[in-house]
Amino acid sequence: MDNLFKTKDTPILIAGPCSVESREGLQKVTASLLALPEAQRPLLIRGGVWKPRTRPGGFEGLGEEALQWMADLRKEHPTARFCCEVARPSHVELCLRYGVDAVWIGSRTTGDPFSVGEICRALDSTTLAVMVKNPLTPDVNLWLGALERVQQAGITDIAAVHRGFFTYNNMGYRNNPLWEVPIELKRLLPDMPLLCDPSHIGGDRTLLPQLMQTALDLHFDGLMVEVHHDPSQALTDAAQQLTPDELHTILSTLHSHHDPEPPDTLKLLRQQIDAIDAQLIRLLGERLDVARRIADVKAENNMPVFQPKRWEEVLQRKMQIAAEAGINPQFIKSIYEKIHSESIRVQLASPPSATQKSPTDD
Ligand code: PEP
Ligand code: MN
């Protein structure tokens, strides 16, 4: 089989219902998706058949029966390719039996290396294409580890899927996008196709256009979007699913990019950014030297390293300067939290300077 996810300049589109709910529903959404102009590009139809539910009592998917419907639809539409979530080795075995083209390891499973290991033993030496969603927590190493386990099982058609993270404050999203985490994954695994699932990030279909555009702007290699033939009646994730027509409308308004040789103006601006960064880093070094001298003065005066009142004043002042300079104060706050924690670390690690008497000196 060709590599499903390495599709050069054409981002792959994965679309389909959150859950497969009925033969007719799957038939309708498959036929509508295959009739879209977007079906000319790499397209994979998704449909959950084993649904991880946070609370008991909801719709948990139809299992093997739904896989049979996918297999039947493939006879009707020979170009259709299907994928679903797997969370157990038995799921992988059933997907292989019914000729499913690709599977994904869901967010709840990625965070559990034991489960990922068991799934990988079932995947070993198969030709299934495999996607790995990010774990629920923003831990890039757990995500990386699951991808490595899949690679070690001999799977070559593999992609990472960013679906946001559960954080204390989800910033108005169902799952906080924390774009810096997939950006870090891309840095660690530059050749790994990285897809975005805006549906589970947004949790609300009105957020999808903006999230899909951001994913393209950030150079994601494809999108996984939940599409239902009648979203208002969906048994799971009704608020975030789109109709096939809505998907088409959004996709046709997105601005896609290409990646040419950078023009000279961009090269010059990048030189400026690099020079500014070098200055910033040198200044941070000077700031840390001052922090070490502060550590000496605090030690001489028997003062604790962390001074909550001073820290509050520093933070408020920096945020005020930021606001006056037209910079987002929350951005400056998050930078200063990092600077301050390094300053505390350095002060705690700072040996008493030569001018200070050690306790053993007379
Ligand atoms: C899904 O895609 O249907 C799903 C349950 O996703 P996640 O693992 O991202 O929550
Ligand atoms: Mn869903």
Strands of the widest sheet, in order across it, are 1-2-3-4-5-6-7-8
| Alpha-beta content class | alpha/beta
Tell me the overall shape: elongated
Record field, number of beta strands: 8
Can you summarize the main beta sheet?
8 strands, parallel, barrel
CATH topology of the largest domain, what is it called? TIM Barrel
By CATH reckoning, the class of the largest domain would read Alpha Beta
CATH architecture of the largest domain: Alpha-Beta Barrel
Low-confidence stretches: 354-362
What is the arithmetic mean of pLDDT?
95
Q: Please write the string of helix (H) and strand (E) elements.
A: EHEHEHEHHEHEHEHHEHHHH
Helix content percent band: 40-55%
Would you mind describing this structure in some detail?
With 362 residues, the protein is of the alpha/beta class. The protein contains 13 helices and eight strands. The chain has helices at 23-35, 64-76, 89-97, 107-110, 113-123, 140-152, 180-188, 198-202, 208-217, 244-253, 264-300, 308-324, 329-349, and strands spanning 12-16, 43-46, 82-86, 102-105, 129-133, 158-162, 194-196, 222-226. The N and C termini lie far apart (79 Å). The model is unreliable at 354-362 (pLDDT under 50). The chain binds phosphoenolpyruvate (PEP) and manganese (II) ion.
